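Aim 2, interim progress: modelling of the KG4-bound target.
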Amino acid sequence: MERPGRALILGIETSCDETAAALVTADGEIRANVVSSQADLHARYGGVVPEVASRRHLELVTPVVREALAEAGATLDDVEEVAVTQGPGLIGALLVGMSAAKAIAWSRGLPLVPVDHLRGHVASLYLQPDPIEPPFLCLLASGGHTMLLDVRAHDDERVIGTTLDDAAGEAFDKGARLLGLGYPGGRELDLLAQQGDPAAYDFPVARVPGLDFSFSGLKTALLYATRDLTAAELEARRADLAASYQRAIVRALVGRVREAANGKRVAVVGGVAANSELRAALPDAALAPLALCTDNAAMIASAARYTVAVSYPGYLGLDAYASR
Ligand code: KG4
Ligand code: ZN
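Predicted structure of the complex, ligand included:
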């Protein structure tokens, strides 16, 4: 196998419940992208348990890095810098990735690049084979965030709208839970919605000022629509409820994007960017590739290409942050 040369960025991502490592070249080609999801581990709790996540990251981070190196046909000799998610996310989970990255950087004499997770999601758009270039308007919709970003340069994005309560992915997950689907339920709700009638229920799209979002009222509307149904009735209406609920979320997202776009190019990133109805509703937008919508380390390595690296011993003092 051809040696990649000492030009790979090793990315590590452990901000929530995915342990991920990737190898990306300086011009944005993905050589390996390994994601180990802990979703099954958290499913029985109906959400991510931070302490359980940290412990699992600790077990998985080294094997996942090894697997990424093997997939790329590379060794640590081929790595020129180590990129790691610094925040936002679960502090204990982030610290596992940061410690692993510091240890690899120190032992190999490499610089370390601390990467913001949200900038990482945006940087999923800068990878080969179809990278796009700023400026653009970016909808970032994930389990933890829902934001409209005015992306002016690779390292310059301004938040012009955000959610006042739940994130869009959180709305999907809570809705899925009310409908008796697993956790995280976004993808399952998406699949179920394809068999339902989106006009069956008239769920509200919140009216909030400016370019912000709100999803908590919608979740309550679904709760009211389901709570008086018997198990058999719920079963019969589940697909219609899913389709109508999803329609309301997608309408809220697309409505805001249209208001903010003003002729600008639009891009969509984050876990919710995998939603089939959202993708279909924005045919002219640059959509993150499906494999790069949910959390991964290729996007972290990608963002590192536009972030200042920290050399030894400076990076030893870097701390994780829970919120921006
Ligand atoms: O970006 P991500 O992996 O994690 C965060 O940074 O939060 O996003 C995960 C979120 C979850 O809420 C999940 O239910 C949602 O993305 N998601 C979807 C779909 N696939 C994942 N939501 C709607 N439709 C999908 N197909
Ligand atoms: Zn994320």
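The first strand starts at residue 8 and ends at 13. The longest helix spans residues 231-261.
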